[in-house]
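Suppose you are handed a protein chain with no further information: no name, no annotation, nothing but its sequence. What can you learn? This example shows the usual starting point.
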Amino acid sequence: MSETPAPTMYAVASGGRLKMLMERTGTGDAVTVRELAASAGVSHGTIGALLTGAQRVIPEHKAKAIAARLGVDLLVLFIPMERAGRTLIPVQQPTQQVGA
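A reasonable first move is to predict its three-dimensional structure. Written in structure tokens, the prediction is:
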């Protein structure tokens, strides 16, 4: 019997960035918390929590729905996370050495 893998989780890069993208979506229009929540299929409480930092991490399907409604690429707004034991850590990205 195999376990169902946990869904990939994504952390919002910044509540400020989310707010900015809500003020001017890909179409140039603004979207409210409730409008974004309804069109992305998430609760307005989730959007509010992402804006304030009370919640940082959401499942991939929700992150994709939010990014799509805002008209931006997923990685503009969210950072993919990996499981390491019980802690979520950002997926490792190549680093540049300063002064090299």
